[in-house]
Amino acid sequence: MATKITRRSWAEPYKMKMVELLKTTSRAQRIKAIREAGFNTFLLRSEDVYIDLLTDSGTNSMSDRQWSAFMLGDEAYAGSQSYYKLEDAIHKYYGYKYVIPTHQGRGAENILSQIMIKKGQYVPGNMYFTTTRVHQELAGGIFVDVIIEEAHDPNNLHPFKGNVDLQKLENLVKIHGAEKIAYLTLASNVNMAGGQPFSMENLKAVRDFTKKHGIPIIHDMTRVAENAYFIQQREPGYQEKSIREIVREICDHTDGATMSAKKDALVNIGGFMATNDPQVFEEARNLVVVYEGLHTYGGLAGRDMEAMAVGIKESLDDRHQHARVGQVLYLGEKMQEYGIPIVKPVGGHGIFVDARAFLPQLSQDQFPAQTLAAEIYMDSGVRTMERGIVSAGRNAKGENYYPKLELVRFTIPRRVYTQAHMDVVAESAALVYERRKKIRGLRMVYEPKYLRFFQARFEQL
Ligand code: F0G
């Protein structure tokens, strides 16, 4: 008898050795919890959360090999062996010459911004990221968005929505001169655009242009392996290359990097700054002792650096990325089957629901994404994150930024949840979507000065 199988499924390239039990809550308990949290999912206690899709940051499951490496941590204050293992991994897989560990990504952003930005200089980037921009501004820089226009349109199917618009970059250089530009921040798999990659072709063109004008490229490589996966899947000429090779090629086209290892690199804490410039390294070694710790631990325990070195290697496994991005795609397809408006194409680290399209009755000042994240939580205990006007914050003059994208991020931690969890999440989003017309917005009643989305409080209108 002929088989009915027309295609073969893939599965996660691992099995479970230990599990963490989840708590479920009643709707009444969740309503109480979100009220107490000021309708901000960042202020919920995780014990009140069922499936936690707040972030993919520091929420990864470590492998048995990473846990074993933990036991090898050399907790020396200076010259820890674990530092040298991390340095070796970064040399080998990413290729940057000099490495400064930091407690997480923003520690690296702080040091790098202070070194490389002179007051009043411009810092172009392929879309802003919250912590990255705040450090650039605190260092006296002015962020300028140079991502392609397609990135601001949730329905545009461009395969590389993380690309830099060279015309925008060229205009900036024409108007202000190259010496007024500190560097270009180039993020791989752009978070705020929905986890969207840049292409190698675009990177090469950007490299040619910046080289000509003496502008360094600083790579925010937080999700570089996910970007490499998309290049492998979508860009002509890369199908036969491994993720490991593509990642190395990306890094080789840039001058330095900041990294939050809490994402791609499969650890719960950690990051680093890397550079090929000995002078920048010299200054970073000076500054790191002020803000993070000695240059051979930068705010991390020896065991954290061990786990990171192993995690970097595991992140570059083709099967790992296939399963990781595949799970995100699975959730995205489910949501689209239910008619839920999401950012397309589906990105690498989560599903970004278009809150403007979901709740068209709310103006942006009524915080559609913040509202929707609270509604999803009340429905099922699934925790998501606002990525819209609250996250965008205010400019140096104190005016609200009004970002074009008003999104709720359903972020998938790596190696943590199963396909069945994804089904539960999609069904919850679908049920909220069914009663979307009855949903009212929010009013902000407390606003912190920096990175307000973390601690702002709201009331229902
Ligand atoms: N750059 C990107 C692209 C990020 O996504 C993050 C963190 C950072 C830098 C800062 O790194 O948190 O280690 O200090 N993103 C988290 C998120 C917070 O949920 O998207 P960090």
CATH superfamily of the largest domain: Type I PLP-dependent aspartate aminotransferase-like (Major domain)
CATH architectural arrangement of the largest domain: 3-Layer(aba) Sandwich
Distance between the termini: 63 Å
SSE ordering? HEHHEHEHEHEHEHHEEHHHEHHEEHEHEE
Count of the domains:
2
Task: Name the shape in a single word.
Answer: globular
Descriptive notes:
- The chain is built from 16 helices and 14 strands.
- A five-stranded mixed β-sheet has the order 2-8-7-6-5, sandwiched between helices.
- It folds into two domains: 27-56 and 318-460, Aspartate Aminotransferase, domain 1 (Alpha-Beta Complex), CATH 3.90.1150; 64-315, Type I PLP-dependent aspartate aminotransferase-like (Major domain) (Aspartate Aminotransferase, domain 2).
- By secondary structure, the protein is of the alpha/beta class.
- Helix 5 links the parallel strand 3 and strand 4 (142-145).
- Helices cover 40% and strands 12% of the residues.
- Helix 1 (27-36) packs antiparallel against helix 14 and helix 3 runs parallel beside helix 11.
- Bound molecules: ligand F0G.
Keywords:
single chain; 461 residues; alpha/beta; Aspartate Aminotransferase, domain 1; Aspartate Aminotransferase, domain 2; three-stranded antiparallel β-sheet; 16 helices; 40% helix; 12% strand; globular; binds ligand F0G
Task: Draw up the topology in text.
Elements: H1 27-36, E1 51-52, H2 64-70, H3 81-94, E2 98-102, H4 105-116, E3 122-125, H5 130-138, E4 142-145, H6 166-176, E5 184-187, H7 200-213, E6 217-220, H8 224-234, H9 243-252, E7 256-260, E8 271-275, H10 278-291, H11 302-315, H12 318-337, E9 350-354, H13 355-358, H14 368-380, E10 382-383, E11 385-387, H15 389-392, E12 407-411, H16 419-434, E13 442-446, E14 457-460
Parallel strand pairs: 1-10, 3-4, 5-6, 6-7
Antiparallel strand pairs: 2-8, 7-8, 9-12, 11-12, 13-14
Residues 55, 57, 104-106, 129, 131-132, 187, 191, 220, 222, 260, 262, 271 line the site of ligand F0G.
